[in-house]
Write a structure and sequence with these properties.
Keywords: Hydrolase, Metal-binding, Metalloprotease, Protease, Zinc
Shape: globular
GO molecular function: metal ion binding; metallopeptidase activity
Number of domains: 1
Pfam families: RadC (PF04002)
Distance between the termini: 39 Å
Oligomer: single chain
Strand content: 15-25%
CATH superfamily: Cytidine Deaminase, domain 2
CATH class: Alpha Beta
Domain MPN: 21-147
CATH architecture: 3-Layer(aba) Sandwich
Number of helices: 3
Strand order of the largest sheet: 2-1-3-4-5
Structural class: alpha+beta
CATH topology: Cytidine Deaminase, domain 2
InterPro entries: MPN, RadC_JAB, UPF0758, UPF0758_CS
């Protein structure tokens, strides 16, 4: 039985002895898409965080929230509680747009800025925020100079 105060962090490594390392937005997107349930990516919006060590090796991926068709509520405290519990030094934010539109909304931009500021206080680097779609396209805040 799972206790209410436990945080579920997981990552499937497909049986490989080598841990996966994030080198760019494309490699991050590949890891993120491997973790997504293909049956729900176009049904409702979900916000996840990829937790990394100093070498940008994936420690795990945690689903922070799941919402409706056009949005989800993100509690920044949960993001950083998990980062602190896992001794992560960097994170990558990600969420899906069920509509298939990769352009970030104003709310996406504001949330990203708020999380980056919180990370600076805790010395946890926000490397990117990647928006994914059911069709495989993605948007990287880092690639666009927004982080």
């Amino acid at each position: 039985m799972e206790r209410a105060n436990e945080i579920q962090i997981s990552y499937k490594n497909n049986g490989s002895a080598n841990q996966l390392k994030i080198t760019d937005a494309s490699s991050a997107n590949n890891i993120i898409m491997d973790s997504w349930d293909r049956n729900t990516i176009e049904l409702f919006e979900t916000f996840k965080v990829v937790y990394l060590n100093n070498c940008n090796t994936v420690k795990g991926i945690c689903t922070i929230s799941t919402g409706g068709i056009s949005g989800t509520i993100v509690d920044i405290r949960l993001i950083f509680a998990t980062a602190l519990k896992t001794l992560s030094t960097a994170i990558i934010l990600t969420h899906n747009h069920p509509s298939g539109v990769v352009v970030p909304s104003q709310a996406d931009i504001q949330l990203t800025q708020k999380i980056v500021k919180a990370g600076e206080l805790l010395d946890i680097k926000v490397l990117d925020h990647i928006i994914v779609t059911p069709h495989g396209s993605f948007y990287s805040f880092a690639n666009e100079g927004r982080i």
